[in-house]
Amino acid sequence: MNKRNGWSVLADIITVILSLIWVAPLFFALLISIRPTSDPLGTGNIFFGRTITLENYQRALELAPWQWHYLTSILVVVGVLVVQLITITMAGYAFARMKFWGRNALLFILLIQLMIPSGVLVVQNLNIMRQINLFDTRWALMMPYWGSVFGVLLMRQTFREIPPELEEAARIDGANLFQILRFVYIPLSIPTYVAFALVSVSARWNEFLWPAMVTRTAESRPVTTGLSQLFSATEAGTNYGQLMAGTILVVAPLVVLFIFFQRRFIESFASSGLK
Amino acid sequence: MEQVSTSINTASTVQSRRIKHPTWRHLIPYLLIAPTLIFVGLFTIYPTIRTFEQSLYQPGMNVRNERGQRVQQPDTFVGLQNYADLFIPQTPPHPIVGGFLQILSNTIVFAVASVGITLPLSFGMALLMNRAIRGRALWRFSLFYPVLLPLIGGASMWAFLYGNSGGLINTVLRSLNIPTQDWLNTPDLVLWSVIVVNIWKQAGFYMIFYLAGLQSIPKDIYEAAALDGASYFQQLFTITIPLLRRTTLFLLVIASTYAFQTVEQLDVLNKGMPANRANLLLWYIYQMYPSSQARGYVNAISMVLVVILFTFTFINFAFFERRSADE
Amino acid sequence: MQKLVSRFGLLLVLIGVLCVAPFTQAQSRVQIDFYWASAVEGNLPAIFQGYADQFMAENPNIQINVVYSGSYTQTRETIRAEGFDPVVDVAIMLATDLSTFITDSPIVMLNPFVDAAGGEVFLADFFPAFIANGLDAEGNVWSIPFQRSTPILYYNADLLRENNLDVPKNNEELIAVAQALTTPERAGLLLPIAGTFPIWIYQSFAAAYGRPLVDSGLDTVYFDTPESLAAIEFMTRVGLPIEEGGFGVGPRGGSAWGETPTAFVSGKAAMIYHTTGSLTSILQNVANSENPFEVGVAFLPSGPAGEDGTGYGAPTGGGNLYIFDNESTPKTEAELEAAWQWVMFLSSPEIQSDWGAKTGYIAARYSAWEIEPLASLVVEYPQYAVARDQLEFAVKEFDAYRSVDIQNIINLQLSKIISGEVPLDQAADALAEAQAQIDQLLAPFKGN
């Protein structure tokens, strides 16, 4: 496979074409976001219209209290992730390495979470949040995600692949459960944690439906609700420039984060239990 | 691990403690699971039970009396009537859930097509990315980035591409003198337009899993096969695909549950119209949800979705677990 | 390890503090939680906060908490999800949500307040077409108009002039002009009826053909009528090519709502039906565009002359102000009075005039048009006056008991016919089927 034969050139060409198709929506979103509203596609230069402007960004920023939205999103993403890391480590270990009565039954009960679209439960969950007086708080955005069955399965899979002899050795050395997790299982599973973190962070950052229902004040609302504020201003026609500017404001932090840590993320996936 | 010197002592203590306090040790696994179980119980299982319960009722009508005060009539227990209304066609169609069967079939087409196209495509992408190619990180990023976008943001990019008069695709087609299509407003096309967005959004995610799988296959297997004169494609079908079977099964579960659950994109892609041809179950629920009289149906349809996903996951998981036990 | 634990702990505490921190406020004044939903552009959060500040300066004992609550739909769902103990006190919601709120939320009947404010005299300053959606069949007042709109005809005046065409006054002229202006690159007429929400534009045709979809009651809907069928056929034929029996002036299946003004601004459509809410942005975007042209605005062309002999007709649209009570902790007199004060303030001629000029919504009161800034805006842009004058022929927007379900039925059936899923020769059956479904839903409300 080392020689650059015909197949390999063809594969290169397909790679480039596929990537271009995949990038096209983002590329044109960027272009549209710097075109003035009065200058829709088809006028002026095919790419840059007659003039470029940041007015769409300026207006998108004006239309929502972004400073609160960003703060909330960051707090929620971190608050969910930190608790999830603890709960999935504990449950993942129990399911991977401990024998106890009802293990399969409990695992199956937990699996229900994977089968039920969370969108279906928002109404009932909203009632719960009102009953426990957490309506319109950031806690309401975090709590439903503190138990992650996807994460538990992931850690269970990862922990299972760690040789049990390592745990035995530590146990003989007198390590307690906490120390075993801390010095044996967790260090050997860092890639899986990183991979899980990426999935968890992007899911929470991009969530829209639940926050829109369970919060109402700007202070407790995340970035996606700011985006929806732009989306709902469509009675007078869709202003794509402004929408794209808003979309880019929302996705930029994640994309930048990913670009910086791309190698790390991909390696993590490659060596994680995610396979 | 500074306890090395006392290891023997500790080991024996553990031994004796286990005999003295069997109950405490037995509790540990439950304590470890408890937090997850509590959160899943409170925010998934309890609401699901409530959903099922309410799917057996028809909500009472609210009316105002002549003084403008609200009078609430109680809910009536109707057994499985709500489910019967969903599945048994009537003439004229049921006023609230008459479209259910069509939307159920849309949803199944959507899920099967999304998964059936995305997974092979992701596998192909992984093969392409697993080669030595200049600028690999860049190509990989360009295939992966849609995963990081909020669904509604990604879909709005596509809404712009799909636009009939001002959209990019039609602008390009027009300049090439190819007849244009109204991608989001032609009954026979619209569901496929939505499927394309879903594929674009997810393919990169599954690609990463396949990439991870490919990199875990030892190189010497291929070298041995190459020595035996196996071509690239023979190696692909006899080594790579069989060895990635577990990855594929895992992705089948993830991708199919995802496909049944994604609807936010419809909010910007013509909301399931025209003629309900792109409407999906979850979106149908959101459409109906504002009607206080449809509460029973909303819950019944939710339960139908739960049952579909349950079956899917159960089959896949049983199969997946059995296989991993075998290996 | 200790370090790790304490770091985690610190992080949790930090998050906890930050989560709770923003929710402290002085409770001594009467608190009014005000939700607003709007569907137009502009720096609306700042405008509303400005109104609230002005109001609080005049009423120091009342605190207005301004909350952007999402789109109209999100806001309605938020409020309905709160059941009979809503958090909200005053909200701007669709005028057509009245029937939903009458049954599902504790909105407050406004008769006593209206009477105290002057009763008929007070209401007479509002355009009757806007008041209509705030009333139930018995004439009780439930909501006060705030941001209202109506569809109008926009035309490219330069194009009409170059081709020596007059502004169309009725449907025949509309098609003749549209056909004269249709080219391969340009649609003669775009109707924003693709997909999502055909019911609004449909209502203008139904009214023009002489049988509006609803009258003053909330328990009757007239969908399966000869007038309705004629209206739907007309709308559909706008998007059909001539060889299929259409007029050949627009895209099959109509045009998407948001795309329609963009197409008009960029010269891809000679005429469009759209809301008055777009007027401001269309005027601005055309002025800044590559090929500016004169934007003409006219009444929607008339259908066959109806009862009033004109054949004009258009529904109204937009949002009204509602006051919400709370059933488990009913509001005190003082709280209700404070809420009403705020409603009065927002619907006052001064604010209506300012709001209309800033957003393009039609100021809901006659007197608002006589004061600044609206008075001079109309002089500069006579287009704004057209929308106001058409209100004389406007009809109540669709609302009925079970309105969500009925709207779903009507929108679906319209979409089927317009998109060609149901051929025109079977449209009559489709309407009869929809009417049967609607009547089934409304049966329990008859004779209430």
Give a quick set of tags describing it.
heterotrimer, B: 327 residues, mainly alpha, MetI-like fold, 2 domains, two-stranded antiparallel ribbon, 13 helices, disordered N terminus, C: 448 residues, alpha/beta, D-Maltodextrin-Binding Protein, domain 2, five-stranded mixed beta sheet, four-stranded mixed beta sheet, 44% helix, globular
Written description of the protein model:
The complex is a heterotrimer of chains A (275), B (327) and C (448). Chain A has 14 helices and no strands. With 275 residues, chain A is an all-alpha fold. Chain A is globular, with a radius of gyration of 23 Å. Chain B folds into two domains: 2-49, no CATH class; 99-295 and 304-326, MetI-like fold, CATH 1.10.3720.10. Chain B is mostly helical and 327 residues long. The longest helix of chain B has 33 residues, at 22-54. Mean pLDDT of chain B is 83; it is low at 1-20. In chain B, β2 and β3 (70-72) form a beta hairpin. Chain B has 13 helices and four strands. Chain B has helices at residues 7-20, 22-54, 81-87, 100-129, 136-144, 151-162, 168-175, 190-216, 219-227, 232-243, 245-261, 281-288, 295-326; strands at 57-58, 62-64, 70-72, 76-77. Chain B has a two-stranded antiparallel sheet with strand order 1-4. A two-stranded antiparallel sheet of chain B has the order 2-3. Chain C contains 19 helices and eleven strands.
